[in-house]
Amino acid sequence: MDTIVLKFGGSSIADDQKLNLVADKITNLYKKNHNIVVVVSAQGKTTDKLISEAKELSEITEDREMDVLLSSGEQMSSAKLSLLLNKMGYKAISLTGWQAGIFTNNTNQNAIIKCIDTSRITKELEKRKIVIVAGFQGINENMDITTLGRGGSDTTAVAISAALRAKNCYIFSDVDGVYTTDPNRLPEAKKLPALSYEEMLALSSEGAKVLHNRCVEIGEKFKVPIITKSTFNNKPGTVISDIIEENTIKSIVKKDVSRVSIVGNGIIRNTRNIKDILDIIEKNKLDMLAFDVSESKISITFKNQISDNILNEIHEKLLIK
Asked: 36 - beta bridge partners?
């Protein structure tokens, strides 16, 4: 029986209505004879709320105590989802990060997973239970709670997938995949059906808020296919894997710090694209501070912050065919 891992972000489980929607997605997959492991984030803005409350008590916060506090958000989510699934007639169990066997180094607030003892998860799956793991957290050698940093639930999900040799790892959120550029900025943005790990890492490093960098690194190392999908529709998502398609530009990312990056495998060998970009820069009389080209990315840093109109022009020239 195949094991699949599903991760749901905070916006996907923000309230009871959304929890019920998530429960339906989980049970539909469970009924297809899969072993199901679910990783959850804290609901909605819970983490931000906990940070704010802590700072109201003390301007100087201890990292260890913040990990104890912040990890509670994911534990609440996992317990609520388990309660709901059991009410629906499905055997489910919630596990904290340490109950799930996630061992990290001793760094609080930004810990790195060292290993995962999957024995507890496997034991529960053998009973045909849906296992719900609190994301973003683990335990160190001192038996202290640690957290993995913002976006760490993605890393939890992919790391568990690797440890269990899961068939796929699905990352559900409020977006239905990776786009050629930010669809909130440019309506013309197109969804990408597939990306390589290298391309996704390049996008993440430039600020594309789709996947946590470290989860992509783990996916690449252990060859875990990562599928990004929307919780709120059934459209195909974007598959991130080691399969590299044609050498072509895949996406354009604009950072608010006046940098634009164009990502795609083999981009360094396409001199036509480089010329097109330079022509746009010259036509608009933009002052460059740096123009860096690597195997899978061109990054241009400008003297002044550029407008979305420039992003649109580059997008149309390179990606709209």
From this structure: 4
